[in-house]
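Good morning,

Both structures are done.
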Amino acid sequence: MKTMVFDIETVPDVETGRRLFNLDGLPDGEVAKAMTFHRLQETGSDFLPLHLQRVVAISVVWRHRDGLKAMSLGTAESSEQELVTRFFEAIERHTPELVSWNGSGFDLPVLHYRSLLHGIQAPRYWETGDNEQAFRYNNYLSRFHWRHVDLMDVLSAFQGRSRASLNDIATMLGLPGKLGFSGDMVWDSYQHGEIEAIRNYCETDVMNTWLVYLRFQYLRGQLDAQGLQEEYLRVRRLLDSSDAPHWKAFGEAWVQPEVAAPAQPTGEG
């Protein structure tokens, strides 16, 4: 099975904000402030609605056969349209199982709106069984199907009050977590032209997600103890083979756990 873990990073869609709030002539920073202020007055939170989020990075961990890759799509100079196109093209070509943390609640709805804006077709992603029978009971869109595993949603038993952040769960499991960068720093970093820092942060987020997913696969019996250790070693080899500072920091922060084999039942008498 091909598996693609994904995460996106976004900034305010200031172009749409200008049109919505009649802010022609204002610089991007001032438009973003006006957008967040309007949202705060409207809802009590300055978190922008998903249709006003613009994608600036998409990172993936790709697992297929004996291969494991971690990367950001496109380049630092890629347009939003190119990034979103590359994401859906990967689904069109490979039909992978998608894995995310809060992908159903954030990443995918944002990608829906941005693909609508840019006119990006993705028939395989939107397939629900009309053209392929196999997608009728297992597609990317249904909350309770397995072509997309939203770990936050599944592990919380689909209960909003039970949800946890990726950083909390990563820390609980001894994973590196955020490593000093967080989502609320993306806009300032973007304004300062630090797109590579954003892409690096996004990559470490998907690696955290992948490692949580491996534990989840062990939890549900899809990996045994040996298989889990082999997957951990595959990640370790990938980290050790890279000279990139964010992967070196990730590798140093991650203490690979030992996983004990399940206890065997004992007989009576």
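Second structure follows.
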Amino acid sequence: MKVGLFITCVNDMLYPGTGIAVTRVLERLGHTVEFPLGQTCCGQMHANSGYAELAKPIAEQYVRVFDGFDAIVAPSGSCVAMVRDQYPHLVPGSADVVARTYELSELLVDVLGVTDTGARFPHRVTYHPTCHGLRLLHLGDKPLQLLRAVRDIELVELEGAQECCGFGGTFALKNSGVSTAMLEDKCANIRRTGADLVVAADNSCLTHIGGGLSRLRAGIRALHYAEVLAA
């Protein structure tokens, strides 16, 4: 299968290792991964802030760039949710490309029928299901299926896992007080697990959570789950 990697803005600028991990996992499974250089932002920030007309040409560029791939994969539930939920309204005729766009766990579990990526990760880990993956993509336990198959991992349940971490993109800026209170609850629950790491499907949320844990000197690292699957 020829897969197009949509890296997304946050990963491109701050977490390139996550894109490398996605590529490593898929190539280990025998698939060809390409990184089209014409890709840009998905337009989520614009659309979510009420600037749909500014998001439209960005969405059109995505559809042009990724047309022709058997599948498009992104290590971001929120960006895939943007493509899946809003592109059909922004770009008429985009349905085919939209239907071939997947969050990593969807591609692995639903399309490729894979749960064991051949990883080994000897650490105590807890998983936070991010809001877009949980509520718009309905990922369910797909990331957990993949994590449970990792050798030597100790996967511990997170209390209040389905509660938002408080990031929400511009929400964290416009409603910082509420966002901080939500983050405090999330960090407290993570600390109670005794985990070495907290993993999730969105590095944007992990930046928020990781910052909170760092300020608390909790000694718990935030990491995208793709990097566990690639270990």
